[in-house]
Every structure is written in C-alpha cells, then in structure tokens.
Amino acid sequence: MDSHVKLDLIVEEMDFQFDETRSFFNKETKEIVSISYEEFSAVEDEEPIEKFPDWQQENIKIAEEILFGDLWIPLPSKFDIHEYSIMERFCLSIKNNNLSDIMYYSIKGNGAFRKFKDNIRKYNIEEDWYEYRDKALRTIAIEWCADNGIEYE
C-alpha cells in the first residue's frame, strides 16, 4: 500500500464538510470518512447499533474507533478553515485598488457571503476567487499533513 495520501482527497473532503459532520483520516489505511454528530451520540449514549439502518451502522463503528482509539485524526474543520478570513485576504490581494475596496466592503455586515458571491460574478473575478480559495485550502491541508506527520502527493 502506498504510504502517501493524495493531497487533493484531503482538500476535497475539507471543502465538502457540513455543519453536522466531521471528517477524519485513518493513519493506517489512509481512508477519509465523515461522521455525523448523531453517530457520535449513538456511541456516547451506548444506543444499540441495530436500531440504526445498515448504511449508518458502519459509521457508528468508526465513530467508536475515533472516540476510543488513536488511528483516526480529525481533518481541519470548517472552523479551522475559516472561509471568511480567506475571502478577506482575497479581497485585499486584488491588484485593482478600487475593486479591492468594493470587494472588501461587500463582506462587511449582514449578507456578507451572498454579497461576496454576487460581486465576484458581477466583476467577473469568480475564477480568480476559486483559484485563490483552492490554493488557501491546499496550504491548510499541507500544514495539517506536516503537523500530523502525514506524507502526501
């Protein structure tokens, strides 16, 4: 088995996290899974696994391994990634000062994410944003790998 994990897989998993789940990496198998808080609660509350559908029972077993073992480590969460901060840095990186100001002030106050998305389309910088965001996620993933002694390709 290859001892390296594909960095793109880590980045992809970081990008598609939901509020009600956490993603974990198995140091031995290099597998990445997302486990819901419901599945963790099932383990913590010692609920009978048979009570859950077949598809969820495997995740509950993995949740138990995560809680009581040391093979699984959490991937950076949405809170670790802090997309608002990435958006802010992107706005400040725009070379056109006028556009940089417009974008920066669009992320202040209510509806910041919606206004930002509207403006990247309006000013035709959507591709620039996604490229910037992808690089930021890759940087976070590389730092996570280094912190956890994980080799990547």
Written overview of the protein:
The protein is mainly alpha-helical and 153 residues long. The protein has helices spanning 7-15, 37-44, 54-68, 78-81, 83-93, 97-106, 112-122, 126-147; strands at 21-26, 32-36, 72-74. It has a three-stranded antiparallel sheet, with helices on both faces. It is elongated, with a radius of gyration of 19 Å.
Task: Summarize this structure as a short list of keywords or feature phrases.
mainly alpha; 153 residues
How are the SSEs placed, and which strands pair?
Layout: H1 7-15, E1 21-26, E2 32-36, H2 37-44, H3 54-68, E3 72-74, H4 78-81, H5 83-93, H6 97-106, H7 112-122, H8 126-147
Antiparallel strand pairs: 1-2, 1-3
Helix pairs in contact: 1-8, 2-3, 5-6, 5-8
